[in-house]
Amino acid sequence: xxxxxxxxxxxxxxxxCDDTGGVPTLETPELDSxxxxxxxxxxxxxxxxxHQDANDAGTNNLEVIILGKSGTTDEDWHEIMRFQxxxxxxxxxxxxxxxxxxxxxxxxxxxxxxxxxxxxxxLYFLKDVGSLADxxxxxxxxxxxxxxxxxxxxxVNAYDNADYLxxxxxxxxxxxxxxxxxxxxxxxxxxxxxxYACRVRYTMVTDIV
Length: 209
Description:
Elements: E1 4-17, E2 25-27, E3 31-32, E4 43-51, E5 63-69, E6 77-84, E7 92-94, E8 99-100, E9 108-110, E10 123-127, E11 136-144, E12 148-151, E13 158-159, E14 164-166, E15 169-175, E16 182-188, E17 196-208
Antiparallel strand pairs: 1-17, 2-16, 3-16, 4-15, 4-17, 5-6, 5-16, 7-14, 8-13, 9-12, 10-11, 10-14, 11-12
C-alpha cells in the first residue's frame, strides 16, 4: 500500500469579502506543486466562508470559484468548479464575558442569550472584532440557555465582550482533479450589504512511496 507524505498549510487567512462598496472580490495566492509541468498538484482544499455581520444578503449569494492552471502562462487558467455560499441574514450575538483560552472552561462561549444558537452540531463563526485572523469556526456541542454555548473543543484564542457569534457558515473540502499544476480560489460578493469572512487551507501530497 502506498505511503503518502503530506503537508498542511494556509493559502489565505481569514479575509473580508466586503459588500459592493468595499472589497467585493478576493483572490488567493497561487498554490503549486513546486515542480512546474513535471508534477501535477495533489491537493485537497478546505474552504470556509462565514457571514460576519447581520446584514441581509438576500439571494445575492457569494460565489466561490476554484481555478486550476495546466500550463505555464496566466492564459492557462481554467475553471474547475464554482459554488455559492448561503445567503440570507445571519443571527448575531455579542459575547457577554471573556471566553476561550485562559478561562476556566475554554470550550465555553459566554453569551447572555442563546436563542438561534441552540442546535448541537451547528457551525458558528466566532469573530474577533479586534483581529479577524484570530477568529474561528466552532461546532455547537451543547448549550445552557441564556448562559453559554459549549464548543466541541477548547478555543485556541481568547475572546472578550466586543466579539460576536454568527450562525451562517459554509465549509467545503475539495479534492482537485489530476492534471493541474497549480490552483487558486476567487471569492465574489454581488450583494450590497452582507460581508463575509473567507479562509482557505490545504493538504498537499508531497511524496508517494
